[in-house]
Design goal:
This protein is mainly alpha-helical. The protein has helices at 2-27, 47-55, 58-66, 87-95, 103-114, 118-125, 137-148, 153-170, 184-199, 205-211, and strands at residues 71-76, 79-84. Strand 1 (71-76) and strand 2 form a beta hairpin. Helix 8 packs antiparallel against helix 9.
């Protein structure tokens, strides 16, 4: 009986492995030699998905530590994910917004961040790639940000206000000769939040209390 069970399990594993390999071969994304090196998955087609489910976004950090490359490619469920670690490459990516679209990331993340409903998600996704013309929520938001952040007296005022508030946040660390121990994450979070909200004229003591 044990021999039969073992044989059944072995056959099942072989069939599943064959299906995964076949699926990955026919439906997996094709690799171009100009792309960053591919980090192969132990389980074809779904290996990286399992890693992401187990570790969340930390999975990228684990892979980057194991494979210290400037950039690498992950193939998951017929799609590709590029992980960029080099500061120079990150700057190059940011400067090539027309060639590398940030919109798919926004489409994937925004429902989780904002806990948006079906109607709101439909608005976010409507013409997200701009294929129907220069309109849509992302297009309008991006255009509004470019106009608001263009060089002007208002932008100078916002920058100066933020720097002043950051200076007020940093100064207490230099008072006296005693060493000051802080939780870096909480300290930075509070400083940036207070400074940025003041810079856009949001004065709310509750913000400071909520992140103290």
């Amino acid at each position: 009986m044990e021999t039969e069970n073992f044989g059944t399990v072995a056959i099942s594993v072989t069939v599943v492995a064959t299906l995964l390999i076949t699926t990955n071969y026919f439906f997996g994304p094709k690799y171009d030699s100009r792309e960053p090196p591919v980090i192969h998955q132990k389980i074809p087609y779904i290996g990286h998905v399992i890693g992401l489910l187990q570790h969340g976004l930390r999975y990228f950090e684990l892979l980057s530590t194991k494979h210290p490359l400037p950039a690498f490619t992950l193939q998951t469920l017929g799609k590709k994910v590029y992980v960029v670690n080099s500061p120079d490459l990150i700057a190059a990516v940011q400067k090539n917004a027309k060639a590398l679209s940030f919109n798919p990331f926004v489409s994937f993340v925004s429902p989780r961040i904002f806990d948006a409903g079906d109607e709101a998600n439909a608005i976010i996704h409507d013409n997200i790639d701009g294929e129907k013309g220069p309109w849509g929520l992302l297009h309008d938001t991006s255009r509004g940000m470019h106009i608001a952040l263009a060089p002007s007296d208002s932008l100078d005022w916002m920058t100066n206000t933020m720097l002043t508030k950051l200076e007020e946040h940093i100064e207490p660390l230099g008072v006296g000769n005693d060493e000051v121990e802080v939780d870096l994450y909480k300290w930075v979070r509070k400083g940036i939040t207070v400074a940025s909200t003041e810079a856009v004229r949001i004065h709310n003591p509750g913000i400071t209390q909520g992140i103290g």
